Amino acid sequence: EGLWGFINAQGDVIIPYEFEEVLAFEPDRNQAMVLFQGMWMWIDRDGEYVREATPEEIRELRRKAQVLEL
């Protein structure tokens, strides 16, 4: 369906495939930024909503993701 989620090292789904886009968990925050129903937000390692992402956070994490693709 083109949706994203998270798996553990054993390949088990730990957060269901329900996001349009995902960025990796930030080690210093223990949270990941995800796009869910058109809204960027932070989730914790249980997949629970933490808060909406700020525009500055979205720009910064996208910039980091572009650098990693090089």
End-to-end CA span:
27 Å
Question: What is the overall shape?
Answer: globular
Number of helices: 1
Structural class: alpha+beta
Radius of gyration: 12 Å
Report the strand count. Answer: 6
Order of helices and strands, N to C? EEEEEEH
Biggest sheet character: 4 strands, antiparallel
- Fraction of residues in H or I helices: 10-25%
Strand order of the largest sheet: 3-4-5-6
Q: Note poorly predicted spans.
A: none
Q: What is the arithmetic mean of pLDDT?
A: 89
Strand content: 35-45%
Identify the notable features of this structure and list them briefly.
single chain, 70 residues, alpha+beta, two-stranded antiparallel ribbon, 1 helix, 41% strand
How is this structure best described in words?
The protein is α+β, with helices and mostly antiparallel strands. The chain is 21% helix and 41% strand. The chain contains 1 helix and 6 strands; from the N terminus they run E-E-E-E-E-E-H. It has one helix at residues 55-69; strands at 4-7, 13-19, 21-22, 31-36, 39-44, 49-52. Strand 3 and strand 4 form a beta hairpin. The mean pLDDT is 89.
Brief summary of the model shown:
The chain is of the alpha+beta class. The strands form two sheets. Strands 3-4-5-6 form a four-stranded antiparallel β-sheet, with no helix packed on it. The chain is globular, with a radius of gyration of 12 Å.
Topology:
Layout lengths: L3 E4 L5 E7 L1 E2 L8 E6 L2 E6 L4 E4 L2 H15 L1
Antiparallel strand pairs: 1-2, 3-4, 4-5, 5-6
